[in-house]
Structure formats: structure tokens, C-alpha cells
Specification:
about 800 residues, alpha+beta, Aldehyde Oxidoreductase, domain 3, Aldehyde Oxidoreductase, domain 4, 3 domains, 7-stranded mixed beta sheet, 5-stranded mixed beta sheet, 28 strands, AldOxase/xan_DH_Mopterin-bd_sf, oxidoreductase, AldOxase/xan_DH_MoCoBD1, oxidoreductase activity, molybdenum
Length: about 800
Amino acid sequence: MTSTATPATESPVTADTSGAVTARYAGTRMPRVEDNRLLTGEGTFVDDVQRPGMLHACFVRSPFAHATIKGIDASAALALPGVRAVFTAADLNGDVVEAWHAVAGKDVADTPRPPLAEGVVKFVGDPVALVVAENRYLAEDAVDLVDVDYEPHPALADFRRSADSGVVVHDEYPDNVAGGLGGMPPDEEVFASAATVVSENVYQQMYVPVPIETRGMVVEWSAASAELTVWASTQTPHELRAFCARLLGLPAQRVRVIMRDTGGGFGQKVVPMREDMCIMLAARKVPAALKWIEDRRENLMSAGQSRHVDGTVRMAFDADGRILAVDIDFLQDVGAYPTPYPVLTTAAIGMFFPGPYRVPKASFNYKTIFSNTAGLHAYRGPWQYETLAREMLLDIGARKMGMDPAELRRINVLRGDEMPYFNPNGMPYDHVAPADTFEQAVKILDHEGFRKSQAEALEQGRYLGLGYSAYIEPTAAAQGYLGHEGCTIRIEPSGTVNVYVNGGSTGNSLETTVVQLTADVLGANVDDVHTIQGDTAVTPYGAGTQGSRSGPMTAGAVNEAGTTLRGQIIALAAHALGVEGSDLELSNSTITSRTDPDKSMTFGDLAFRTHYEPTQFPPGLASQLEATARFVSTAPIHWANATHACTCEVDVDTGHVTLTRYIVSEDVGPMINPNVVEGQIAGGTVQGIGGALLEQLSYDTDGNPLSSTFVDYLLPTATEVPTIEYGHVEIPGPGVGGYKGCGEGGAIGSTPAVINAINDALAPLGVTVTQLPATPAHIVDLIERGSGGQERSDRGIKPRMERTTDSGTQE
């Protein structure tokens, strides 16, 4: 592992009136506090929740991609002993009061999203009815007994064929266009006069997050108290609570959401989906708690889709390789019932397309298209296509100009001394130096050494490749309800410190980082600090885990509450010890006089007096060791950036790709915990590798899913992923501690790095992959087309001067 991170100081935390803190734990590789629980199987996930008399739900799902529901006969299912109810749209949909999501707001027009299919099913897996039974086995059996009479219709399975399909997915959108946007029109004079213009069609397949824990919830309605309790696998417990209250028309204080452990989210669990709505609605109609746990087939078939984009991208360069203009024109598949989050972020593909480069002119245009497939949902960097298309085009352009792709990037990448920098679409970059992460990745790799080895391998008939990918991403964007975060810190009578934050931790180690931050701001021993998250009854409101916001926002909230609490500690301890507050130092959960070290007391001593002997303190000095604060971000965006470098070997006979090295140099500001940062990078990188090589959610021409199990939907494993090497550049961001988000970058940068490495390996054969994924069969097909049908020898194929792309064109 390579790292340039500077270890944090071990100095004690000093209390003073300025609020400055010398970190002791932040910046260290402290073990995760949640690991003992999780690694010993003691975690509590939704399926572990048991309630008295609990009932189980299972959905009747459409086997057709597009059909009219002519009738539903549930009599046979209801006759099965143990079946308690079968709900259809007529039973549930009319109970919806409001169904808007905070990410879009109540006044933003939204696409249709009924809980159960109303009259027409619009994709295979569309929920048609909900069966409730005494156990899951009975519910599964009863689903097969519900007789639904369908009248099938032609389906639109390929969003690229929307215009000539003759199929309308939603009557409200007769052209199947959910929305779109255009930026500045392209400057065609620049493209016409440029020394080099590169244009390519780049298609990214549909693939999905597949969290290890599928979706699920338990909902319990108490009629006596008119209260609803929800145990959920979610990234946003407080927003789930608010959504549930709106959906059912309940006062928010009557809804409690409890989120314990969640086995991954990656964006899929940010907003409540249609099945969640059904369980909430049905829970008030049954006599006991209602549990629904999604199985893997349902998750792959119905939890949504992502990444499915087709576009044409162009770049114009001058004679020295400097970028003159970029243009992107694309379509994004939003399926039948998209959630609002990724539809809103589609514009970011165009806005961010200039990337971390010096680009004078940029233009974009896009449309989002309905299809008879699962609805679009968020997935780790929903705008990732902009990085994929741009970075692939840079490599193609470099080869066309006879340059090394690294040199082309070096000419154009932005430096730190150019900040602040506004990209041509108005995005305000600051507190970043993309050139630094790029140069660090090049150095770790030993670029020139690899090129020498690559040339030697080619002489032996082996095809090695190197791919770079650089990006800049917005983290902790302070927009609307995402721009603030709450925190409560309380010192209990024992001296234990409890910190309450909204939660949403889905493997991103908020439990650990919040403990580190709290220990530092108070001068507490980290073993004395514990965190309570994910219970809306006791934690302050927050927007949860999304948009790489958790690090910067929780750091701000902890600092706000901790600063207030530290002031309380100093005031009370100064009176108890008979010294001035400015003379006190806080370290290791102990308050000590700097001038007289014999005057000292522990947090436990102070807490005991505060809770059990409050009359020792004078009137006007509150006997309180608790603070609640709300942090409101004044920085609109915390920009993070990274460069990924990947090397590979391609077997030109089988098309098999072996990744040989993988390097990530990133800047997420100072790291609260390098282990956590690198874990986030590794997880996202592996997901991007899967998207480049393996993963594909496929449909046939009738809209039938072809990859609804892990037999057909291939995931990367340890055998496909090399050891990931890390480099760290730490440029502080504009917020508290200088922290930036790191949740999405790995998944953004990895796919283009892998594809560029493959294309670099295949460049001597005149072959370029522009349609994903780069499966062995796809690579072999391109090679055979590029070879003009020549016979392959034991040492590969003779190179050609022309370059064959997926579209069949030659240059």
C-alpha cells in the first residue's frame, strides 16, 4: 500500500475561547468500533427483527413488461390457511395522502409512482398485489394462487428505440420523454477549425448496486396510541419517517423509524420506493406488525436500474493537444417508475462533463426516456457517465494525435494555483488541485517503466495496457435539506459520552468517525465515547447518507455541539476546581489546571457532581452536560478529486482481461480515518470494475429480464480484483476540519480506467471498446471484426492501421 498521509499528532485537546482543537484521534487508523459486533454475527438487520404475532408480506409481480390488468382473483389465495389478506391497488393506492420526496421537494413535478400497479403493468416485476400471511413460506405459496388476467401489449425494452417503437409507457408522456435539458449550444466553428476533432458513441450498459442486504422493513401500527414504528434498511431514517408521515397523513411525531445495521445501500436505499409505500399502507390494515424482506431475484428484477446511458461525445483540440471545446449529447434510460433523485442528477452529467480539465467551451444536451424496465434509482455517483465518456474520449484522442494519454492529460489538467476556477458550465471548482493527484498516480505507477515493459511484452505477443481516469466530484452539496445536520452530545452520570446523530450508516463507518470527532472536540478518551444513530425518536434530524455528505456534515454538527458542551465542561469544572476556565486543559477525559496539575478531575467526577450534587454550583450556572446543535453549511460544495490508474493484460484468443495493478490517488481533504477512506475507495472501485467487465442487467426484446440471479448477473470477486494501492493528497476543503466526502469517487473513476487499459492493450490491433461491458465475447468479436477475418495465430493478430470501434466504423 502506498500512502502519503501525514499521521495525526498525539497532542492533547486544548480548550480555549477560540474553539480551536488539536486533533488526537482524527487522522489515525483507529479500528472500526462496529467491527466486533458485525464480524461476530451480532449485528441487527431488519430480518432479525421479531415482533409478537408478526405477519409476512410477499408481492404478486407481473410476468409481462407491458399489459392491461383485466382482473385479479385472490379467492384461492385467501382460502389457503394462514393467509390473512390480499391487497390490490383498489385497497391501498387510494389511501395515499402525499408521496413526495424531500430530495425533489413538494413543488417539483414528479413522474407517476403508484404503490401497486393501476390498470396497466409497465415492467416485469411490477407489483400487482400484496399477500399477507402468517409466515413467508405461506405468503410465497399464496402468491402463486393469485390469478391475474393480463392482456399483453408490445413493450419498449430498449430506450434507444423509443421514437420508432410505437409504445407509450405512460399516457401522460406520449413521446416517452420524462424530461431533458440543453446547455449552451456547441460552437461548431471551433469544431470545424480545430486541428483535431474526436467524436465517439459511448454506450454504458444497465447495472445495479446489489447491496449484500436487500431492501426490507417491518412496520407496526399501534391503534391505541395511533403510532407507527418502522424498522428499515435505509440510508435516510429521518426522511423515511417524514415520507411515511406524509404518505399516511399522520403527524410526524406519531411515526418512529429505527435503523439498526444496514448491509449496504449505495444510493438504492436513499428514498422509499413503491414496495415500501405498500408495506406502510398495509400495516394499518392488519392486526400485527408486517415484515417484508426482498429476495435477491426481486432485487435484481424490481429494485431499479442505473448507469444506462447512450451518448455521442466530441472533443476539439489545438495542434498542441490543448482542449478547445467539448460537447456531449446523450439519452438516459429512466425505466418505468424512476425515483426522483437520479432524474434530477442527470443534468450533472452535462454540467460536470468538462471534468478536472482546462476547457474553454462546453455544451450538452440530454433527454431522459421511459422504458418498460425497472425504474432508475441512484447509484454511487449517478452522473458517473460524464467521467466514463470524457476519459475514454481523451485516450482515443491521444492515440489519434500520436500522444501518450498521460501527456495529453498533463497538458490539460487543472492545477491548484488556478483555483478558484469556473468550468464553462458555471461549476465553481475550489480547494482542489487535480494535477497533484494525477502526478502522484503517475509516479506510483512508474509510467515510463510500464511503457518499457509493455513494449517488451508486445514483442512476445502479449498485450498489456494502461488506463488513466481523472475526475472531480461535488461532495456534501449544501442544497435544501441536505445543507444542514444535527447532533446531540451528552455526558452521562458515569462520565460516558454519548453522541447522537441521525445515522444512515450503511457500511461507511459513521459510528467510528463520529466517535473520533467527538473524542477530539471534547478532549475525551475515545473508549469513553459511544454513538447512537438511526432512531428518529432520539436523534436530531438529518438527511442521512447520500451525496458523499456524511463526513463533512457530521464533522460540522459534532463540532457545533461539542464546542457548546466543552464550554459547559469548562465553566462547571472551573467552579469545582476553583480556577479560571482559561487555565484548564481537557485530555483523556480529564480536566486539569495547566498551572497547578494537582487540581484535576475526570469527566466522571464532574458528571457525578453535575447530576447528583447540582446544588454545589451557584445560581445561574446551569448544571448541564448536554448540548444539541445544528450545523448549517456555508460552503455550497466540497470538491474532491482523484486519478485512477489501471494496468491489465488481455488474452486476444479468449478475450479474458486480467487486471495486474490498480492505483488510486485521491484528495478528500484531511482523512478522519484513513482505513475508512480507503475502504470506501476500495468498495467503489470494485463496483466500477464489475461495471467495466462483468455486470449487466439485460432484457430481451419483449422486456423480459435475463439476469435475475447471480448465475446470470456476474459480480467481481477477489479473483478479478488486484490489490488496490493508495496515494493521498490532502488539500483541506472549505468546511470544518477541511473534510470532503469520499463515498462515490471509487465507483466513478474505476470503470473508465479499466476500459482505457483494455483499449490501450488492444491499440496495436486497431480495436477500441466503446460499448460496455467489455466481456470476453465482446472483445473477441471486436478483434475478429478489426482483423478483417484473418486467422489468428498462436501469437495473436497482426496489427492493422485502421481502428475498429463497436459501431463498426474505421478511422
